[in-house]
Amino acid sequence: MKNSAFALASLIAFAVSAQEEPRQTLGSWRLSAGANFGFGLKAKMSYAAPSSFYATPTAADMGSAADIGRRLASGEGVRFLNGAYIAPDEAMQAPYTQNWRFPVSGLDRDTGRLSFETAQLDPGGVTAAGSDDSGANGASIELSRTLFADERGFGLDLAIGVSYLRARNFFRMRGGGRYLGRTKYVYTPTPGSMNANVLTSSFLSPSDGYYGSGGAEGIGAVLDWSDFGEDTISSSSEHYSYNVDASGDYEEWELSLMLKPWYEVTDWFLVDATVGVGLTRSEFEYSTAAAIDGAGIYSSHGSEDEWRLYGLAGAGVLFRAWSFDVSCDILARIGQRDMDVSGGPLRGKIEKPDFIVRLAVGFEF
Q: Which residue from 69, 116, 64 is spatially nearest to 229, judged by alpha carbons?
């Protein structure tokens, strides 16, 4: 009888202890790895090629042949490239002047024909602007340790992770326009005129590479400025253009430290949350090329990088089978700053990925 009572008491104690045994929880350690997807990557850039690359001598636009005649008739001078100019001379009776000068290369001594030109750079320069957005893909690895787990299914993990994201050619900018206008003039003296005789005279000699005295002082060859006009000057204009092509790659490495409270809904399904901090090194690598008429191709290549610290918050789910699992986490970066780009010909900013999706396969041990 005593033996039977003892056996019954032992059986009851075993049953009670079996009912109070904690439910199965995740292992103390978990290692996971998988794919990393970043969303919210954007770039807004402007481009400006150095003006020294396409700089050229300029002269104000003198307009049409009729405009040149009107300027001279009103007492204004007209100036062109390479130091060429003609201006009324107050010391002489109109329409005569010795205040003129043209390069030797601009005069045809046989015909008296003068060639001269003006050129104007567009004030906007060789520039472009554009924006682009894209996603970034990569991989991640995470090691976590369960700090505690109770029989009600709640627990807390401490995790450290390393992830990588890259977006190749995520930024692409093209642009173009006009950067230089040039007008060429050819003056042919009226046959038998004073100017025709002066400009073909064997007595006309250059000084320092120019014909003409270049001033109202002293003695010099005299021209009749009234012969410069729409009947004697022909002109042609041309415009020089440019095209810009710029592209850039983005990549980052992130080191994260996280606390992950979780709850086991069933033995094979778990939901969790994430709070923590992330430290990222971001790099933007770019290449640019500008094809400029008359100046060639200006190209550049460079990169900029920075380190940033920010907060992490998110939620996820995990499906478990034996010691293996599949998980999905969605994380938001809190307080992340944009990346400023100010190197070379590019200026602007990059908005880095602010939402991260991680799909991983894990092993518990």
A: 69
Q: Do 316 and 274 meet the contact criterion of CB atoms below 8 Å apart?
A: yes
Closest CA to 205 of 107, 63, 60, 293: 107
pLDDT of residue 28: 86
- Give the C-alpha separation, 122 to 56, whole Å: 12
For residue range 287-307, list pLDDT tens digits in order: 999 999 989 999 999 999 999
Rounded Cα distance, 106 and 120, in Å:
20
Neighbour-count burial of 225, counting CB atoms closer than 10 A to its CB (0-12 exposed, 13-18 middle, 19+ buried): buried
pLDDT at site 151: 86
Q: Confirm if 227 and 189 have CB atoms less than 8 A apart.
A: yes
Q: How far is CA 102 from CA 119, 133, 147, 194, 358, in A?
A: 16, 55, 90, 17, 74
Buried/exposed code over 124-150 (b: 16+ C-beta within 10 A; e: otherwise): eebbbebebebebebebebebebeebe
Go through the domains of the chain in sequence order and give each one's CATH number: 23-49+128-178+243-364 (2.40.160.20), 56-123+195-231 (no CATH)
Torsions phi, psi for 122 (to 5 deg): -65, 130
Q: What pLDDT digit, counting tens, does each position of 224-251 carry? A: 999 999 999 999 999 999 999 999 999 9
Spatial separation of the C-alpha atoms in residues 272 and 262, rounded to whole Å: 4
- State the pTM of this model: 0.77
Question: What is the token pair recorded at 206?
Answer: 């250059």
- For residue 20, give the DSSP letter: H
Using a pLDDT cut of 90, give the percent of the chain over it.
86
Mean pLDDT of 307-316: 97
Contacts of 281 (CB under 8 A, 6+ apart): 252, 253, 305, 306, 307
As beta bridge partners, residue 165 has 138, 252
- What pLDDT score does 311 carry? 98
